[in-house]
């Protein structure tokens, strides 16, 4: 049995090596390991995987065995030879053909978020996101930096589509939204959350409101326009008139911004909202003391390195909603990554 000192050192080592775990996941996805094994009629050995991927046998074997230890793959030994296949976890989330595929989000994390996190210490020093340092682009206009190219904008939109394919329906069911027939998804991006909304509440109509570049990309690359209950409208939610609605959804929006900017946006939403209407805020909620859950704390640090905002506690969201004029603020923890707050005009 190891001593308390050895246990503490093991924990420290696990924390220090955490970046290696994410890189294993990113590399296996980038190389196409999970898609290859999903398409194979039977489990494959490392040599066969390497041959089909065009990778080294040695490196492939190391990667596959590490994926086994992470429960991303499972292996069985036949005649002294290890054969690999996907686990339920990887089959559900890491195979492109799966409706819950998360590869686009992982690609965004790998190519953008991971690079920003390399400058976390500097972000803590100056309290600003790290787009100028990492990508050489000014960040005075936040989403000009986030959407710094058409390819990056499309990658981000596909990443959010992945998120809502898993979390959207669950968080939209936290409250009964059927009394709100006309809904506006503010900053609704590709329309992925709107799709989940019309699926869960067939009687509703959803207007996705986002900047022109996002709406144009959505129309070009996503199929949600085929649903007559979903429409798109171009505009800047800080400046332009908001579409008329019974309910305004702010999903992963407020965490991008400072309290001042959030207050400005919520005041605009309150003015546009019909009497008896409301706002649904979808975010990952911190515990009351701000010291958990760990995933949400990490998301809050991510807001530091990538945006102007932070994750918040239920009390902090109430403190933003009440001055904007909203009443009857209800918070629901869903048990998932994202939680829901419903407030009435």
Automatic annotation (TrEMBL):
Asked if the Swiss-Prot or TrEMBL record annotates the protein with the keyword Transferase, the reply is: yes
Q: InterPro entries given for it?
A: COMT-like (IPR016461), COMT_C (IPR001077), COMT_dimerisation (IPR012967), SAM-dependent_MTases_sf (IPR029063), WH-like_DNA-bd_sf (IPR036388), WH_DNA-bd_sf (IPR036390)
Q: Which SUPFAM superfamilies match?
A: S-adenosyl-L-methionine-dependent methyltransferases (SSF53335), Winged helix' DNA-binding domain (SSF46785)
GO BP terms in the entry:
lipid metabolic process; melatonin biosynthetic process; methylation
Q: What is its EC number?
A: 2.1.1.4
Per UniProt, residues of the O-methyltransferase C-terminal domain are: 117-327
General function of this protein: Catalyzes the transfer of a methyl group onto N-acetylserotonin, producing melatonin (N-acetyl-5-methoxytryptamine).
Quote the protein name from its UniProt record. Acetylserotonin O-methyltransferase
Q: Which gene encodes it?
A: ASMT
């Amino acid at each position: 049995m190891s001593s308390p000192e050895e246990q503490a050192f093991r924990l420290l080592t696990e924390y220090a090596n955490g970046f290696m775990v994410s890189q294993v996941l990113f590399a296996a996805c980038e190389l196409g390991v999970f898609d290859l094994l999903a398409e194979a009629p039977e489990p494959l050995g490392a040599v066969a995987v390497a041959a089909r991927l065009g990778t080294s046998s040695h490196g492939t074997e190391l990667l596959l065995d590490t994926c086994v230890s992470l429960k991303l793959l499972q292996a069985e030994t036949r005649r002294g030879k290890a054969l690999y296949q996907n686990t339920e976890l990887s089959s559900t989330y890491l195979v492109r053909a799966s409706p819950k595929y998360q590869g686009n989000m992982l690609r965004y994390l790998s190519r953008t978020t991971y690079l920003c996190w390399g400058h976390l210490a500097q972000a803590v020093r100056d309290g600003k996101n790290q787009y100028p340092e990492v990508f050489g682009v000014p960040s005075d206009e936040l989403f000009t930096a986030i959407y710094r190219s058409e390819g990056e904008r499309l990658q981000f939109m596909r990443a959010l589509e992945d998120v809502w394919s898993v979390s959207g329906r669950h968080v939209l069911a936290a409250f009964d939204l059927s009394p709100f027939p006309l809904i506006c998804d503010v900053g609704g991006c590709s329309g992925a959350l709107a799709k989940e909304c019309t699926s869960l509440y067939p009687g509703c109509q959803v207007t996705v409101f986002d900047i022109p570049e996002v709406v144009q990309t959505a129309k070009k690359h996503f199929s949600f326009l085929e649903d007559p209950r979903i429409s798109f409208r171009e505009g800047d939610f800080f400046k332009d008139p908001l579409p008329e609605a019974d309910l305004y959804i702010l999903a992963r929006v407020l965490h991008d911004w400072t309290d001042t900017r959030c207050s400005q946006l919520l005041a605009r939403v309150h003015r546009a909202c019909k009497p008896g209407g409301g706002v649904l805020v979808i975010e990952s909620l911190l515990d009351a003391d701000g010291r958990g859950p760990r995933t949400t704390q990490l998301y809050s640090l991510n807001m530091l390195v990538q945006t102007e905002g932070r994750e918040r506690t239920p009390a902090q969201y109430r403190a933003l909603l009440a001055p904007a004029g909203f009443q009857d603020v209800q918070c629901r923890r869903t048990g998932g990554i994202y939680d829901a707050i419903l407030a009435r005009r």
